[in-house]
Amino acid sequence: MPVFLKKLLFWGFVAFLIYFMAFRPDGAAQMFKGIGAALMAIFQGLGDFMTGLMT
After folding, report:
1. Which of 11, 14, 15, 37 is 20 to 30 A removed from 22 (C-alpha atoms)?
2. CB within 8 A of 21, min separation 6: which ones?
3. Membrane spanning segments where (predicted)?
4. Whole-number pLDDT of residue 4
5. What pTM does this model have?
6. CB–CB of 52/44 below 8 Å?
7. Is 35 in contact with 27 (CB distance < 8 Å)?
8. What is the per-residue pLDDT for 55?
């Protein structure tokens, strides 16, 4: 993928996030809470897996 296209997509995504947070703050907060919860579940599962290997 050309560098210009990557930069364009990245800045477009950043602009969308800013727009989303400015005009739909409740929806943005819920989205970030969901992402955080999913990451916590992934790392908790990984920790449980590693603990299971060690015992």
Report:
1. 37
2. 28
3. 32-53
4. 92
5. 0.66
6. no
7. no
8. 83
End-to-end CA distance of the chain: 46
Give the Å distances, CA to CA, from 4 to 8, 18, 26.
Answer: 6, 21, 33
Integer CA distances (angstroms), 21 to 2, 7, 10, in order: 29, 21, 17
For residues 19 and 28, give the distance between their C-alpha atoms in angstroms, rounded to a whole number. 10
Q: Which amino acid would we find at residue 17? A: L
Residue 2, token pair as written in the block: 């050309």
The residue type found at 42 is: I
Predicted pLDDT at 44: 98
What does R_g of the chain's alpha carbons equal in angstroms? 18
